[in-house]
Amino acid sequence: MNYLKKILTNKFLYIALSIVVFFGATSLYVLDRWIMPAYTNYNEGITVPDVTKLSLVEAQELLDQYGFRHEIHDRRAHSAYPADYIIDQNPSARQIVKPNRKIYLTVNTVERQTVVVPDVVNMSLRNATIQIENNGLQVGTISMESARFRNTVLRQTIASGDTVEQGTVVDLTVSDGLGGEIVDIPELEGLLLPEAQQELLAAGLRIGEVRFQPERDVSPNTVLSYSAERSELREGDSVNLIVSERFDAQEADEAGAVVNGDEDENGLQDIDSIDEAEDDNEGSDSINQNSDNNDE
Q1: Which residues pair with 227 in a beta bridge?
Q2: Which sign, positive or negative, has the C-alpha torsion 49, 105, 168, 165?
Q3: Is residue 215 assigned to a domain?
Q4: Average pLDDT of span 246-257
Q5: Which CATH number is 71's domain given?
């Protein structure tokens, strides 16, 4: 205890601690104020010039003037650019970066590079897309087809192993997850078209051809009948529907317009004159009929 007390009361201990703290604080200050800014070019920045649409030689000269390094990151064909012209750059133009930064360039090439098409059948759509893009190709149209495992690639338009130009589009046929089970067609007659669509969707079926048929005594958009290509349907098969539409009455057109008769001052035919004309017509028909009978 006396020994510890003696150490704590020793003035040389505090002098040594003061010297250590002083030199430590001074070192941190110098490091933060001068050394690190000089090493990291603190508070210094240069705007990256736009070297796209320039030839490779011109782009190199311009980057050297700005104090940047450069590297050709990729070469690919682009019909809008001449050969050996810059298509893209990273970092992009007008960004502020540190001096001596490396700029990565994408250069146009006259000869189109070729790549081998990967085999993406039985892959998930996500993995197939990654494989196609990683090989320098593009995913085109994605069509759905009924099969058991959802979002699984069933077919690809370009066979795996074929050598094609970089950037070629590959179309895919993908499973919608249906088709694994045999299902019954739900009762659809009498349902409105939206209700029938919901019933088919719930049963795992699709709507095929929809034909509209005029009906006088049925509300529009009501399912009159339905049919399928085969009696046993699997999930994803289509059902054709015949649906009612508004019946356009044509009795007035078929009877013909009355062209004779008096009209009132408003331009409308007088009802009595129309009735008289009809009576005269009926009388004429009766006389003609009697005359025919006498002739017989």
Answers
A1: 240
A2: positive
A3: yes
A4: 52
A5: 3.30.10.20
